[in-house]
């Protein structure tokens, strides 16, 4: 496959959802299956990279040749990324990180009272933005999951976080599914990748990123 285009490179990825505890038995999460991130981890390993996959709770086996670090919350994901990122050449944020978490998770199970209740939320750190803002950042690839106006939002995220590359997708096209269709955004513009199995898409994305990395 592509003559081991990532040989000698270390890639750190995030994948899956995060789970933000409300109490010991409940939490806030989202419907990312992890399939896209795991396919990319597999493609990077196949291309010869050393791969660390920081994964939220998903029901997928560890891809061959990949080191998985399992986490639940966004704060734990941020810590696991920080522990692996210093000598990384590439960071790929595929995780659907919860933007907010309950401000003070209850220590014990919350009892039903019949009254209306509300949960105070506090913003989570943006893991990708933090990695991209490091003094000597790895080559950072972001994902953008949108439900409309993909070009505007995805290219906006690329510029705001100063990323060399963003992979945009519409949630209705790929979330939870075995295939997806994406658009890659970089300095040169937009590059649509037609609908395919996530493993095949991952190879196209890795090829694109290896080309940009080599041209640096
Ligand atoms: O897991 P699957 O079922 O296969 O579905 C794949 C997918 C739709 C989840 C995936 O293709 C995808 O788009 N992942 C990114 C989802 C997302 O949360 O995007 P976002 O637009 O909210 O975030 C933008 C980028 O910042 C992402 O790279 C995200 O990982 C990162 N981020 C966001 C928030 C945060 N607090 N920390 C982050 O690192």
UniProtKB/TrEMBL annotation:
<dbReference type="GO" id="GO:0004633">
    <property type="term" value="F:phosphopantothenoylcysteine decarboxylase activity"/>
</dbReference>
<feature type="binding site">
    <location>
        <begin position="125"/>
        <end position="128"/>
    </location>
    <ligand>
        <name>CTP</name>
    </ligand>
</feature>
<keyword id="KW-0210">Decarboxylase</keyword>
<keyword id="KW-0511">Multifunctional enzyme</keyword>
<comment type="pathway">
    <text>Cofactor biosynthesis; coenzyme A biosynthesis; CoA from (R)-pantothenate: step 3/5.</text>
</comment>
<comment type="function">
    <text>Catalyzes two steps in the biosynthesis of coenzyme A. In the first step cysteine is conjugated to 4'-phosphopantothenate to form 4-phosphopantothenoylcysteine, in the latter compound is decarboxylated to form 4'-phosphopantotheine.</text>
</comment>
<comment type="pathway">
    <text>Cofactor biosynthesis; coenzyme A biosynthesis; CoA from (R)-pantothenate: step 2/5.</text>
</comment>
<dbReference type="GO" id="GO:0010181">
    <property type="term" value="F:FMN binding"/>
</dbReference>
<keyword id="KW-0285">Flavoprotein</keyword>
<feature type="domain" description="DNA/pantothenate metabolism flavoprotein C-terminal">
    <location>
        <begin position="6"/>
        <end position="211"/>
    </location>
</feature>
<dbReference type="GO" id="GO:0015937">
    <property type="term" value="P:coenzyme A biosynthetic process"/>
</dbReference>
<dbReference type="GO" id="GO:0071513">
    <property type="term" value="C:phosphopantothenoylcysteine decarboxylase complex"/>
</dbReference>
<comment type="similarity">
    <text>In the C-terminal section; belongs to the PPC synthetase family.</text>
</comment>
<dbReference type="GO" id="GO:0046872">
    <property type="term" value="F:metal ion binding"/>
</dbReference>
<keyword id="KW-0479">Metal-binding</keyword>
<keyword id="KW-0460">Magnesium</keyword>
<keyword id="KW-0456">Lyase</keyword>
<comment type="function">
    <text>Catalyzes two sequential steps in the biosynthesis of coenzyme A. In the first step cysteine is conjugated to 4'-phosphopantothenate to form 4-phosphopantothenoylcysteine. In the second step the latter compound is decarboxylated to form 4'-phosphopantotheine.</text>
</comment>
<keyword id="KW-0436">Ligase</keyword>
<dbReference type="GO" id="GO:0004632">
    <property type="term" value="F:phosphopantothenate--cysteine ligase activity"/>
</dbReference>
<keyword id="KW-0288">FMN</keyword>
<feature type="binding site">
    <location>
        <position position="99"/>
    </location>
    <ligand>
        <name>CTP</name>
    </ligand>
</feature>
<feature type="binding site">
    <location>
        <position position="143"/>
    </location>
    <ligand>
        <name>CTP</name>
    </ligand>
</feature>
<protein>
    <recommendedName>
        <fullName>Coenzyme A biosynthesis bifunctional protein CoaBC</fullName>
        <ecNumber>4.1.1.36</ecNumber>
        <ecNumber>6.3.2.5</ecNumber>
    </recommendedName>
</protein>
<comment type="similarity">
    <text>In the N-terminal section; belongs to the HFCD (homo-oligomeric flavin containing Cys decarboxylase) superfamily.</text>
</comment>
<dbReference type="GO" id="GO:0015941">
    <property type="term" value="P:pantothenate catabolic process"/>
</dbReference>
<feature type="binding site">
    <location>
        <position position="157"/>
    </location>
    <ligand>
        <name>CTP</name>
    </ligand>
</feature>
<feature type="binding site">
    <location>
        <position position="109"/>
    </location>
    <ligand>
        <name>CTP</name>
    </ligand>
</feature>
<feature type="binding site">
    <location>
        <position position="161"/>
    </location>
    <ligand>
        <name>CTP</name>
    </ligand>
</feature>
<feature type="region of interest" description="Phosphopantothenate--cysteine ligase">
    <location>
        <begin position="11"/>
        <end position="216"/>
    </location>
</feature>
């Amino acid at each position: 496959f592509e003559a081991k285009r990532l040989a000698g490179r270390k890639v750190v990825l995030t994948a899956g959802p995060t789970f933000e505890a409300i109490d010991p038995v409940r939490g806030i999460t989202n419907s990312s299956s992890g399939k896209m991130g795991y396919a990319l981890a597999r493609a990077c390993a196949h291309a010869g990279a050393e791969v660390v996959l920081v994964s939220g709770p998903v029901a997928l086996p560890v891809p061959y040749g990949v080191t998985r670090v399992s986490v639940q919350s966004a704060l734990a994901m941020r810590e696991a990324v920080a522990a692996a990122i210093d000598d990384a050449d590439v960071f790929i944020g595929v995780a659907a990180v919860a933007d907010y978490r309950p401000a003070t998770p209850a220590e014990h199970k919350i009892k039903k009272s019949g009254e209306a209740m509300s949960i105070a939320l506090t913003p989570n750190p943006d893991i990708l933005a933090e990695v991209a803002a490091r003094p000597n950042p790895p080559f950072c690839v972001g994902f953008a999951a949108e439900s409309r106006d993909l070009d505007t939002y995805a290219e906006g995220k690329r510029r705001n976080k100063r990323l060399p590359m963003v992979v945009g997708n519409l949630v209705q096209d790929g979330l939870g599914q075995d295939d997806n269709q994406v658009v890659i955004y970089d300095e040169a513009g937009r590059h649509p990748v037609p609908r395919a199995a996530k493993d095949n898409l991952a190879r196209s994305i890795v090829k694109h990123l290896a080309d940009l990395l080599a041209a640096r």
